[in-house]
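Thread: "does anyone have the structure for this chain?"

Original post by V.I.:
We have the sequence but no experimental structure in hand. Need at least a predicted one for the grant figures.
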Amino acid sequence: MTGTLTLIRLILRRDRVLLPVWIAISALLPASIASATTDLYADQAARDAFAAASAGNPAQLATRGHIYDASVGGLTAWTLGSSLALIGGLVSILLVIRHTRVEEETGRRELLSSGVIGRHAPLAAALAVVLAANLLLGLLSVVPLVAGGLPAGSSLLFGLSTAGGGWAFAAVAAVTAQVTASSGTARGIAIAAGGLLFALRSLADTGGVGWLAWLTPFGWVRLTKPYAGDQWWVLGLIAVAVAAAATAAFVLSTRRDVAGGLVPTRQGPATGGLPGAFALAGRLHRGTLAGFAIGFGLLGALLGMSARGLDSQLDTPQFQELAATVGGAGARISDVFFTFVMYVLSQLVTGAALVSALRARGEEAAGRAELLLSTPVGRLRWALSHLVFAIVSPALLLAVLGAAAGLTYDGDVARVAGATLAYLPAVWTVVGIATLLFGLLPRLAVAVSWTALGLFLLVDLLAEFRLATGIVLNLSPFVHVPAMLLGGSSSAVAPLLGLTAVAVALAAAGLAFLRRRNLVPSA
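Reply from O.Q.:
Generated one for you, tokens below.
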């Protein structure tokens, strides 16, 4: 562990902007939701009515679970439990991978290790900073909640459970960073694991298999039940799971070489199937893409199975009225459920697309792009070789997700896959943002691209409580995607073409800037 404190100071220096912004926004969000809940539901009768309606809404159950208590605090915990775990988990994954696997991939870890730095110090420093940041976020969120009149003990439990969600995924990322030599693949595995764990929690609340909630951090965060009985002992379960995963990460790190992974990198063929840069890009992207495709295929099959029986299970006037309100006359309850869950999963697919879109920046930062560009390969051809995979990969993942869900849902693969592919222009828009940043601000491209995705998630969450409206709400590309399963096909063309045009313009601008700037071979 020698040198851990020095590396902690280095990490804090490098993330001196990202960490405070993430902590401040996430810490203030619970108080904002509590205030909005008070404004929207002025008395307990209104809150009880909302809770009863949510208990009969399969989409709400899938995305947030059951409401344990209809108080202001209980509704705040219900609204933000899974959402903060998702956002905090994503940020934690990115930070842990950034300060472990990326450091090895770029060669900086080996350089640091030539000094007075112990073998476990880099991983220990990364986990210490991320775990402390999540804890600080959780504790800071308690102050405005208590100031707003909510019970101090329950507010503290809510803050600690919020931190626990981030801790769990930081530990998952610490393990995946030991598995592969590629930072992109490590992120991909961790994000795909997050998607599967989210699906397990959704199935637990909608499919009558509540025990599944005990297998996932999304379930643990909710099962602490702040403001609804305060089950403090569940925090012990989170702590044990995090400690076990972190210990496994340290053990695994001793069983591999520096800059290598537990899964060795295979030697490639002497010649690629495609000429030049595209053959190399295919070699770099194919493993990550295959892993994502398998993960999202399993996720789609699980989603389809969980939605399949809802029409018969929830065939009551209340549910039929809900489906008609959301999707119009004749809308199926299961279609409403699938549409809401797909909205969340499309953002996970966007995370997978960002891994591909930012791979070119990783090659540049590691200095490999400079070597490649010293050959007859031009900049545009090199950048396009990676951009093509960033464009194709989300199309493949959404198609696989929709096809698997369609097979296990109602057998209509074309209808369900078409509904999932409607999110493709929104995903491409985020890819366009990443491409623009890569060409214009390469040093900030990775951090700002992932931050943009996090902000889109945040805007979508705030919109439910009317805290984001008008121009702010319209900034999220996902808001403009029509619900194809709910009769949105007639109005789908214009917004999808608009999003596609925005994505093309952003990507073209990024490529133009790339042609005019110097290479920046340092992160």
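V.I.: this helps a lot. The CA atoms of residues 139 and 159 lie 6 Å apart.
O.Q.: and The chain has a mean pLDDT of 82.
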